[in-house]
Amino acid sequence: MSVVEQLDTVLITGASTGIGATYADRFAQRGHPLVLVARNIAKLEELAARLAREYHVKTHVLAADLTVPAERAKVEQRLRDDETIGILVNNAGMGGGSVLAQTPPDAVQAMIELNVTAPSRLVAALLPRLIARGQGSIINIASVLAIAPELFGGAYAASKSYVLTYTMALHKQVVEQGIRVQCVLPGVTRTDIWEQTGGLDAIPAHMIMEVDEMVDAALSGYDQGEVITIPSLPDVDEWNRFDEARRRMAPELSRDVAADRYKSDIPEDA
């Protein structure tokens, strides 16, 4: 990373616990000032005080519920106005029921507000400044369910698929303008979000990654310039082959005629 980027302020959503708090710790270790966003102001202030004490970095707290438009607007305004912010970590998210027929629509809507609408609006608020200066980074936290929805299903997997494809589209549009974009696809990670879905007792221990391990791997991928980082995937060529298979279909995805397999065999003398 450049000297300028090391001095950028990092705004992290969902920063009070878990993945967000660990990102805050790691960026503070690197010398970055921080803006910590979450609903729980007490936890934010406690974390901010520790980071300032241990790493001697400026740390600001911005309490906001990103599912509430008026509160989300405060974060958007900070991203537009604060010239020091050059890195955004879109981490805030919530889980949801895996059975769509049993999930209340209001719960799905709230999850979409947090998992889809909020990161999209925060990127939109920050991006013009990053493009104008020709430098900056956006890190979006998705999930491996983005490419394997059958493992859990429901609207949660769909919301994380959006984060993945949104990041890929964003990267294509801004990479030539000096903006770095990364999408992180964690597997099962030991965080509070699992308390919303019944805990981790039913999941084999070998499938559960600790938060420190996950964030350190994600930041290693960031340092290596990865656009897509899957912390538990041993061989990056597996992702590359998956992505290449998708790209190979591109010439066939939009044509002026339907594929022959969709056309009925009609006798010539009919």
TrEMBL record:
Which key words are in the record? Oxidoreductase
Give a yes or no for keyword Membrane in this entry: no
Please state every residue range assigned to the domain named Ketoreductase.
Answer: 8-197
Q: Does the keyword Oxidoreductase apply?
A: yes
Q: Name one Pfam family in it.
A: adh_short
Give the family this protein belongs to, as stated in its UniProt record: Belongs to the short-chain dehydrogenases/reductases (SDR) family.
Q: What is this protein called?
A: Short-subunit dehydrogenase
- This chain's source organism reads Dyella japonica
Lineage runs: Bacteria, Pseudomonadati, Pseudomonadota, Gammaproteobacteria, Lysobacterales
